[in-house]
C-alpha cells in the first residue's frame, strides 16, 4: 500500500515538475495565443454565424438557414467574379514568374551597376497597391494617360479607351499584378540560383552541354521547389487583389474585371448584405486554406 502511494506521489511530483519547467514557455505563448484566438478564430466563428443570417446594419441578424448558400450558387455575378479571378490569377502568375526568373538569371551574372538594379527591381514590392495602380492609371487613362498622348502625337487619331474595353482592362490588371509579383519573386529566385552548386555546371561543360541545356537540365530542376513556392504564393496573393481593381476599373466595364474579393466588398459594405458577404468569404476561405496547406507541405519537402 505504501509502495503504491509512494509511486503515485512520485508521478504527481514529476508532473508538477514538468509543469513548472514549461510554465515560462506557456506564459510567453499566452499573449500571442490570446491575440490569435481573439482576432482569428473568433472572427471566423462569427462569419460562420452570420452566413446563416440576414444581416443589414444597423438591424439585428435574422436567422434564415441556408438561404444565403442557395443564393450564392445561383448568383451569376458571383461566378463571373470567380472566373475573372481565375483569369487574373493565371495570367499574372505565369507572366510574373516568367519575368522574375528571366530577370533573376540576368542579375545572377556579374556586371557593372548590379547593386543599383538589385534595389531598383524591388521598388514595386515596397510601393502600395494604390500607388502602383495610379501609375498605370496615368499611363492608360483615355483622357489624361501618357500612352494615348504619345499615340496621338504619333498620328493615331482614335486612341483606344483602354480601361473601358473589357479585354484591355483585364490585360492591364494582369500586367499590374505581374509587375508586382515579379518584383516580389526576383530575390527569391536569386537566392535559389545562388544555391545551385557550380560543380553541376562544370560537369555539364565537360560533357559538352551548351547554356540552354544547362539551364533546362540543371537550373530549372534545382530551383523547382522555390518555383512551386512562388507559384502558390502568387495564387494566394491574386485571390486577395482588390485595391488595384478599385483604382483602375472598379470592377467594370460590365463586370469584366470584377474579382471575388471586390464582389465580397460590394455585397458586404456597399450594398450592406453583410450575411451574404460572410457566405461569399466562407466559399473563398477553404480554397485559400488548401493552398496555404499545400505551400507548407511543399516547403517542408523542399527543406
How would you portray this structure in words?
It is a single chain. Helix content is about 75%, strand content about 0%. It has 14 helices and 2 strands. It has a two-stranded antiparallel sheet with strand order 1-2. Strand 1 and strand 2 form a beta hairpin. Helix 3 packs across helix 8 (about 165-195) and helix 8 (about 165-195) packs antiparallel against helix 11. The longest helix has about 50 residues, at about 1-50.
Strand-helix topology:
Elements lengths: L1 H50 L1 E2 L7 E2 L3 H7 L2 H32 L6 H7 L2 H4 L2 H12 L5 H8 L12 H29 L3 H9 L4 H12 L1 H15 L4 H6 L11 H11 L3 H29 L1
Antiparallel strand pairs: 1-2
Helix pairs in contact: 1-14, 2-14, 3-8, 3-11, 3-13, 8-11, 11-14, 13-14
Query: Going by CATH, what is the homologous superfamily?
Result: MetI-like
- What is the averaged pLDDT score? 83
Number of helices: 14
Q: Given the C-alpha coordinates, what overall shape results?
A: globular
Class by SSE composition: mainly alpha
Helix content: over 70%
How many β-strand stretches?
2
Strand residue content = under 5%
The CATH topology is given as: MetI-like fold
Task: Summarize the biggest pleated sheet.
Answer: 2 strands, antiparallel
What's the CATH architecture name? Answer: Orthogonal Bundle
How many domain modules?
A: 1
Q: What is the terminal-to-terminal distance?
A: 53 Å
User: Would you list the SSEs in sequence order as H and E?
Assistant: HEEHHHHHHHHHHHHH
> How big is the Rg?
27 Å
Trace the largest sheet across and list its strands: 1-2
CATH class: Mainly Alpha
Poorly predicted runs are: none
Amino acid at each position: 500500500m505504501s509502495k503504491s502511494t509512494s509511486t503515485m506521489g512520485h508521478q504527481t511530483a514529476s508532473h508538477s515538475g514538468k509543469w513548472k519547467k514549461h510554465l515560462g514557455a506557456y506564459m510567453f505563448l499566452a499573449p500571442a495565443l490570446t491575440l490569435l484566438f481573439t482576432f482569428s478564430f473568433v472572427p471566423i466563428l462569427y462569419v460562420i454565424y452570420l452566413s446563416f443570417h440576414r444581416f443589414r446594419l444597423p438591424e439585428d441578424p435574422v436567422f434564415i438557414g441556408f438561404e444565403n448558400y442557395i443564393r450564392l450558387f445561383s448568383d451569376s455575378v458571383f461566378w463571373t467574379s470567380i472566373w475573372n479571378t481565375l483569369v487574373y490569377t493565371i495570367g499574372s502568375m505565369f507572366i510574373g514568374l516568367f519575368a522574375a526568373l528571366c530577370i533573376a538569371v540576368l542579375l545572377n551574372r556579374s556586371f557593372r551597376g548590379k547593386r543599383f538594379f538589385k534595389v531598383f527591381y524591388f521598388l514595386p514590392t515596397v510601393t502600395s497597391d494604390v500607388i502602383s495602380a495610379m501609375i498605370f492609371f496615368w499611363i492608360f487613362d483615355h483622357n489624361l494617360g501618357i500612352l494615348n498622348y504619345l499615340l496621338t502625337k504619333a498620328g493615331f487619331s482614335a486612341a483606344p479607351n483602354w480601361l473601358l474595353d473589357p479585354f484591355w482592362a483585364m490585360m492591364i490588371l494582369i500586367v499590374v499584378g505581374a509587375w508586382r509579383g515579379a518584383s516580389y519573386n526576383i530575390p527569391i529566385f536569386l537566392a535559389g540560383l545562388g544555391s545551385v552548386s557550380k560543380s553541376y555546371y562544370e560537369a555539364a561543360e565537360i560533357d559538352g552541354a551548351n547554356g540552354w541545356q544547362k539551364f533546362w537540365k540543371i537550373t530549372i530542376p534545382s530551383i523547382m521547389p522555390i518555383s512551386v513556392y512562388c507559384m502558390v504564393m502568387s495564387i494566394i496573393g491574386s485571390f486577395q487583389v482588390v485595391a488595384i481593381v478599385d483604382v483602375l476599373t472598379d470592377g467594370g466595364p460590365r463586370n469584366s474585371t470584377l474579382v471575388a474579393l471586390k464582389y465580397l466588398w460590394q455585397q458586404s459594405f456597399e450594398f450592406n448584405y453583410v450575411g451574404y458577404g460572410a457566405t461569399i468569404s466562407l466559399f473563398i476561405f477553404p480554397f485559400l486554406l488548401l493552398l496555404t496547406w499545400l505551400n507548407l507541405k511543399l516547403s517542408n519537402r523542399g527543406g
